[in-house]
Each structure stands twice: as C-alpha cells, then as structure tokens.
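Good morning C.,

I know you're traveling, so I'll keep this short. The sequence:
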Amino acid sequence: MGIQIRLHKLFYIVFFLSTAFPFCAKATSRFNDISGKITDKATGAAIAGATISIPDLKIATSTNANGIYVLRQLPAGEYLMQVTAIGYASVTKVVDLANTVSVDVKLSASNYELSDVIVTSLGNTTTRRQATVPITVVTHKMILEGVANTAIDLVASQPGVNETTEGSGTTKPQINGLGFDRVLVLMDGVPQEDFQWGDDHGILIDPYAVHDAEVIRGPASLQYGASAEAGVISFKSAPLPQDGTVQGSVLTEYHTNNGYLGTSLNLAGNHNGFVWGLLAGGEEAHSYSDPKDGYVWGTAWNQVSARLVLGVNRLWGYSRLTLSALHRRIELPDGNRDSTGRFMFDFPQNGKIYPTMSDFLSYNATVASDKILEEYQAWWQNSINVGKGRLGLDIGFTQSVHHDIDTGVYGSGNLLVNDIPYSFKYQVAGDSSGLKLTTGINGLYEFQHNGAAPPAPYVPDYEIPNYTNFELGGYAILEKKFKKLTLSGGLRFDRTDFVGDPMSLNDVGNIVPVGTPGSTVQFTGFNNTYSGFSGSIGASYQLPDDNYVKLNVAKSYRAPAINELTSNGLNIGSNLVDLGNIHLKAEQGYQVDLAYGYDGNDVSVEADGFYNHISNFIFADRTDSLSGGFPIYQYLSTNTAIIEGISGFLNIHPAAAKWLEIDNRFTYTYSHIPNASDSTRHLPYIPAPHLHSDIKFRLNDASNSVFTGTYLRFGLQHDWAQNNVYSAFYTELPSAQYTIFNAGAGTNLVNPKTGRVICSLYVNCTNLTNVAYADHLNLAQYFLAYNGTPVTVTKQSQGVYNMGRNISFKLVIPF
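The tokens, ready to paste straight into the viewer:
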C-alpha cells in the first residue's frame, strides 16, 4: 500500500509538471517534429539502424530499413543533433527545432566513429574536437564490447584515466594521477557523494545503468566546482525513445574467474510527450582467483539496483524525475594467512579456521570485514525555454549508508550521509554571433550522522564526526566560435562551510555526553570555512587537413574533505588508522594543457601534455607508529606538488581496408615534491606508465546474412615498472612491469528481411595467458596478516595479486 501511495504522488507531480511553466511556452498548439533520411555518402544507399539523437534532450531514435527516421514531440530551441552508425564516421548538426521539419544526413564510411562526437559534460554542448579541454568519450558500443565488474571499469582503460582497486568489485577513479575527492563522478548530472573519500568501497553506480560516458581531463570544468580539481567522469543513462514507441532490452552476463553473474532489464516509453524508463539489475560474484594466491579469500560481493524515470516533454522544455536505489554487500580482503601462506578466517567460522572450496565459491558475502553499502537518489531535472536561452533547474536528495560489519549483522562503523544537491543554470546563445554564455550557481547541503554502536562485546568504530557541510558556488562561462577557432573562458567562486560536532567515548567505546568523567575525546568540535576562485581560458583551432590543436590554462581550488580534516580511527576496509588535521588549508593549483590531434581517413591521433602545480597538496603520510598492529597515517600538506605527463591515442582505420582497426591508448604521469628527501620525493600512488593496444578484424556482412557486425579482437595491456614512489615507512612499494593479453569476439543475429537485431553476443578473455601480476594501484597488495596479526608489507610479492584469466559471455536481447 505504501508503494502505491508513493507512485500516486509521483503521478501527480509529473502531471503538475506537464502543465507548469505556461509563461515559457510559445504561442502555438502543436509540438515540433523532425524527420529525414540517412544515406551512404558514396553510394547513396539507405542506412538502416543509424542512431539519431539529441543529447541535450536525452532522446533518440533509429532509422528503419529504408533509412528513414522521425523524432516527434520535441520542444522549441536550437540543439546539436548527432547521427551515428556502425562503420561510419559520426556527423553533428545544429538544428532549430522550431523552424526545421526535415534533416537528411549523408555519412562517410569509416571504422573510426569518434571523430566529431557531441560532448555534454562541459555544460556547454559542443563536439570533442571543438572543446578547448581534453575530453574522452566512451560510447555505448565500446561498453557493450568490453568487460567490467563496476562502473569505473568502463572508463579505466582510457587515456589519462586509472583506477585504484581493493578486489574486483571495489574501484575508484583517477585522472592525471589524482583521485578520490579530486575527481567528480556524475550519474545523469547527480554528483556521487557516497563516501567518495574512502578507498575501501567503490562508486555506487550500477554499471548496467550506464549507456555511455565522458571524461574531462583537467580542472577546467567550471560548472561543477571544487570537487572537480582533477576532472569529471560523467556517466549517462540511455536516451529515451521517440514519441509513440516502447523499447527495451534484456542483458545477461557470466564471468568464469569469479563466477560473476549479471542481469539487467531496461524498459522505456514515450506517449504524447510523457516519457518513462525503468531499469532493474543484479550482480553477484564469488572470490576471484590468481596464479599466485589461488582463490583470494574476501573478494565476493553482490548487488541489486533499480532506477525509475518519469517525465514530460513540452513546448516550454522538459522535466524529468529520476528515482534510484542500490544495495551492495561486499567483502574486502585483508590478506590474513598462516605461516605457509594459506588464507585463514579472521575468526573461526562454524568451527573452521580455513575457508573451504565451497566458501571460496559462495556468493554469500557475509564474513568478517564485509560491508553493507546503500545509495538512494531522487533527482528532479528541468529545462525551460526562456527567450533565446534555456534555464536549467535541478534539485535532488541522496542518501548513502555505510556499515562495516564485525560479524553477521553487526556494524562496528555505521555512517549515514544525506545530500541535497542543487543547480540553477542559464544558457543563451547569439543567433549568428557564435557567442554563448553559461552562468549559474550550484552546490550541496550535506549532513552526516554516526549510527548506533553494536552490542557488546563488539567495539564501535567512529572514523569521522557528525557534521554538516554547505557548499555554494557561482560561475560564468563565455564561449565564442569563429569559423575554425573556438575560444572559451570562465570564472568560478566557491565557498564551503564545515561544522563538526564534538564527541566523547566511555571506556567501552560508546558515545557519552561531552565532559563525562573518565571519558575520552574522540572528536573536538570545529567550524571551518573555505573559499576560493577557480578559472580557465582556452582555445581550440581547426587546422587544415583535419588537424587541430588545443591550449587551456586553468586555476583549480579544492577545500579539504571531511576525512582529511577529522579522521580518528581504524579504517577497517583499508587496514589502517587515519588521523585528520582540522588546520589544513585549501589546495590551489595551476594547470596547463596542450593537445594536438588529427582525424584523417586512415589515422586518428591525439596527444595531450599537461603540467599541474598544486600548493598545499593534502595526502595521508604514514608514520612509524602502530595502533593495534595497524599503521597510523597522518594527513598533512606539502607546500608544493607537481604532476606532469602525457596521454593520448593512435587509432589506425585504413579506408582501403575497412575490415581492420588498430587502437592504441597511452598514459604517462610523473610527480615530484620539490626539496623533499629521496624517500618522500614523489607523491604516493601515481600510476605506472601503461599502454593499451587492440587490433580488430571485422568480417564483411554478406547480403541477407543472419549475422552482422561480426568481429575478432586481440589486445594487450603493458604496464611499465613504477619506481618513483613515496617509500617512507613502506607507504608505497615499487611495482614490477607486466604484460597481459586479451582477446574477444562479437556478432549480431538479425532478421535478414527487416535488418532488426534479434540478439547480440560478446565473448571476451582477459589475461589470456594467466599472468600473475599486481597493478601499482591495487591497494590489496598491501594487505597481509599472519594469524590475525597485521604485518607491514615490504615487497610487492607479499600482498594480494590481481585477477587471473577470465572469460566472459554477454548476451543482449533488444525488443
């Protein structure tokens, strides 16, 4: 009954939205429709299955067997339209939906689809080549053909992007060597504030909810604020279908190494401008194995999630309400072994001290040192046409739940974080001047509360205090487009107000009133305010013969995170004790990016070099002290930190050999702290230089064949040794180089009469030769204990290694 009442409330909200904002609607009684035909530029043949999308409206359709498409019930205004098709270069066009009824597009054959794709994560819709900052696009096709356990896995192999891991289900992103609070992760514009400062759990986004993604490399993303000091990863759900249609798909997936089972159902519809979407999914995995450790105890996990979208498209614009819920239970390995190296339970389980094979293969992630993580979101997005501009009004509510489980159902650490993110944006463009202004304010109000302590004899763990955090920022971004030159610049001001409550504990670790005799102070009260400016100015220039260059100079600003200010306790998942510092200052940085690119008929290449100078750089420094056998880390800041590097790609797609594509992606990052000692000269956890290379062979589609888009792919990932480490007190270890080989294949089963896809099948094998390796950002390599007593890892071979050979099978059935 409660669910029915809530659904009725949602219906009334959406009905109100469909009739609201009458002052913004134009004086006309009909909607805007647009149609056209997509053909091959060389032959004139119709292209079936081409996708026509308007990213700003999150709506899309595809062509029929005759190459015809129709998009109905569209609001007025100028929008960028994108046309993509397998085997063709994408095309973008600016379309005035109020005055255009037909747009025909001719596509040029090409194996490279990313030459001029639309990007929206900058807040100012443009194309990848015209953007003044380096942007990486991960398409839906790339996601379908790849292998991932988490959402971050979907983007981790892209230039300039890495991930820290603590098992196959726990991943955090890095951009240009910076991670955690310095990388802002968005899902359909909602900032992910789910304990993003902790390395012991991953970003709480269902990977099956991600349709495509964009990565901004660098601090020039002014509309997002201080949390985007390193850059932005913007995940986006699938566009909604055109009016009068209902579409969906079922996906199922299996991985051999950790028994990963994934299933997702996606349904969406559009009726007279009323749009809806429903996605539900589940994933589970048992312990993974590697050639050194065998099965790694403590790496099982499971997850369920659901997502509902309700909205309307009207002449005045659109309104969308998104509700989502995610529940994850995940084990974290601690490397507990006996003297022979055999994995042990932290505590005897049913009279056993060693896990059996049935334990390793169990999907039940309920052992000591596991976590319950939950994420609930409500996000209301509105776009309203106002004159020649558009007004964006977004507000939401998110709740993140974190339980560190001692055993069974008792949590030693219980955190509840609530966020109210908001964004108000106005954007206006000149008709023919090429000038565009984007301005607005955004931020969030956050309040965190520690949950109840577990019953005796379990000992509670309080890592951070109860606190509130109010963030407010205002920005203005101006863009000017000439024929070949795009100039963009902007300025932003942010203010952050932290208020932390004091906390005292009695001798058994329970919270008591401050000042209670015999109590100890866990947290002192504090009230810190931070404010600062950020800004950027950049240009992109389209040179002759498909060459282009980009130059951007940006100033960054970031206030300290709550864990950096206040941590005081054992981080159970990371096997260490963190101590915060409420006297930390905000980080200030300057970054220069210079990029060169070329998009030709046979080759596409882009190289981005960057230099980043950061003052008051904050990090956790390992001390020579222990607490309960666990190392103690103290947050501090350096006067100066410098990070520099180069990343890029080389894609070879010969026009005369459409069956061949070779793709290479490279990242090199170097850091140093001026005037530091040998052991503290480099920043901790900077990724090793690495190269990803793939060669893909496409089979020609025979006429009337039931199989299309068939391909074979072979690839490798090579990571060079990383010896530039922060080695004081074994904070970080040098890592050895390694090379792993991969292979994959895929095909579509189609109806030869209509060309409609019946199903798609993808098979991949990662780490084909089953190499034993530990990635430099695999934090589990530092986990080692003997008979429950933590041990300092002094060489890489002592810790937990990455996953061994894995074969995955993925089946997608659209309908």
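Safe travels,
E.
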